[in-house]
Amino acid sequence: xxxxxxxxxxxxxxxxxxxxxxxxxxxxxxxxxxxxxxxxxxxxxxxxxxxxxxxxxxxxxxxxxxxxxxxxxxxxxxxxxxxxxxxxxxxxxxxxxxxxxxxxxxxxxxxxxxxxxxxxxxxxxxxxxxxxxxxxxxxxxxxxxxxxxxxxxxxxxxxxxxxxxxxxxxxxxxxxxxxxxxxxxxxxxxxxxxxxxxxxxxxxxxxxxxxxxxxxxxxxxxxxxxxxxxxxxxxxxxxxxxxxxxxxxxxxxxxxxxxxxxxxxxxxxxxx
Length: 272
Prior knowledge:
Elements: H1 7-30, H2 37-51, E1 54-55, E2 74-77, E3 80-82, E4 96-105, E5 108-117, H3 123-141, H4 149-162, E6 173-175, E7 182-186, E8 203-206, E9 209-211, E10 217-219, E11 226-228, E12 234-236, E13 239-244, E14 247-250, H5 261-264
């Protein structure tokens, strides 16, 4: 069942989204060469507890994975792209890190992810990250009231292929609101004009993720961490988005460097 949210309920999700966006921006600033992944995990745990929020990841036990998940972040490094388990790993110069998090505040959830390079970037990694960000922006722009879910999926897939990357269909975006994963599934490739009608009040997480030289994946022995099948680098971008009568509204916008977070998250943004 798909629940359409009222304007007030979207506003409550936006409160959660602002916290998620600000914490992701903060974590990207903390991450540096020599920082342990567990330092990022414990930093996030402290911030979530201070805010009175609740992690959607802690004790999460879906049909996949080897649960329950006992962390508040997914931290995926280099060839890992989704569901990376925080572990005792010290970031090295040139590592490509993806951070994904979802929390609830007062019963309303927001989910977001970003990828970036720690230290000296490889131009090929920056291009891969850019492709996920441009695909995310295209998916957000396609989430117009009266449109179809296939418009969003097609926009994402078109950008990915224009950059020369394949699209994996096993994992994609999802509905979100009172819980982290709700209907509908939001594929990262599709046909425009097809699928669910995008009615105002629909809230979805749009999350393109790409591997540099394959569209195949494999799962680590930990049962959670998803990697590119050929060991190539990966990237992941995600926002929680509401379909409104005025158009798509990003609820997890992140503050720009040097900006006042309170100012940067008041207005919807297309993507980070």
